[in-house]
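User: tokens in, sequence out, please.
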């Protein structure tokens, strides 16, 4: 945000009075990300309708928010002093990743149901309540801080630091929650391998493959491994983005990171495409075991698929 009086929103760029971004947003980058997020939004919406797993609308909502944010940045490439474009992009691009995180919390809940409550210190419901509540309050802090900073920027002698500090507190709070969640996620993975009872267990996979007629357990194993990998990639993308945004604001509104668009493109835009697009390719509906599939193979693989069927019943009841 500039501490100087801004010219009319669509006036020509004045090198002596930089816009709130510290640069003119790239038109090319804006167009590319509009296309990417439009594709991702449409794909997730189609998959949600086809699968009827309505919780996946969190990915649609987050991708749509990113799309709106990049539309605003594309607008700003032509009207760099527009306060409306700036406020739209900063709010949507801050809030949208929280919806991706919510989707990851739900996916981890499915894993816990499948592999057993003993693999996690929290239940599936507790993950949703605890981490979604943390995300809500962290976003609330960022919104309050952004509002205060925005109001201060409109005043000739306004103090941006108070609002900025509140925003930093919200972003750091959210980053800390993401790191804690990543630790819990890693614990679930480790417990699954350690107990030797999970579908990801290599020995169990090898046993199921010895019988050429027993193909579904191995298929289920591969699917869940893919979903585990996708969830890991998305989680890491959110964490790296959170670290970047925290350092960015700590440097201030005229810091090196926030006034260099390349960092924003690579460490926010590109990472958020990865965080949500990975679940288009590795869609939970196609990769999680289905009740029908579990019951059809229960006689072939014994307790393993019976556990999956019971787990899916539990997920459906919540």
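Assistant: Sequence out:
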């Amino acid at each position: 945000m500039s501490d100087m009086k801004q010219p009319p929103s669509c006036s020509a760029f004045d090198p002596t009075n930089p816009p709130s971004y510290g640069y003119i947003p790239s038109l090319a980058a804006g167009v590319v990300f509009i296309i990417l997020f439009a594709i991702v939004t449409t794909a997730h919406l189609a998959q949600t309708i086809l699968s009827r797993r309505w919780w996946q609308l969190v990915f649609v909502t987050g991708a749509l928010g990113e799309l709106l944010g990049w539309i605003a940045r594309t607008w700003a490439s032509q009207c760099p002093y527009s306060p409306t474009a700036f406020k739209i992009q900063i709010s949507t691009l801050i809030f949208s990743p929280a919806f991706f995180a919510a989707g990851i919390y739900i996916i981890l809940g499915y894993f816990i149901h499948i592999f057993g409550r003993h693999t996690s210190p929290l239940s599936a419901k507790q993950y949703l309540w605890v981490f979604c509540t943390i995300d809500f309050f962290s976003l609330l802090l960022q919104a309050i801080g952004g509002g205060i900073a925005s109001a201060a920027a409109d005043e000739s002698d306004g103090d941006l630091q108070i609002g900025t500090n509140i925003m930093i507190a919200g972003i750091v709070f959210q980053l800390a929650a993401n790191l804690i969640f990543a630790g819990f996620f890693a614990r679930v993975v480790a417990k699954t391998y350690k107990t030797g009872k999970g579908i990801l267990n290599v020995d169990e996979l090898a046993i199921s493959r010895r019988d050429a007629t027993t193909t579904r357990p191995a298929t289920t194993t591969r699917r869940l491994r893919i979903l585990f990998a996708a969830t890991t990639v998305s989680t890491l993308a959110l964490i790296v983005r959170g670290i970047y945004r925290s350092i960015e604001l700590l440097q201030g509104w005229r810091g090196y990171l926030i006034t260099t668009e390349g960092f924003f493109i690579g460490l926010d835009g590109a990472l958020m495409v990865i965080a949500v697009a990975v679940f288009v390719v590795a869609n939970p509906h196609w990769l999680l075991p289905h009740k029908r599939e579990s019951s059809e193979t229960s006689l072939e693989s014994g307790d393993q698929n019976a556990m999956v069927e019971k787990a899916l019943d539990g997920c459906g009841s919540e």
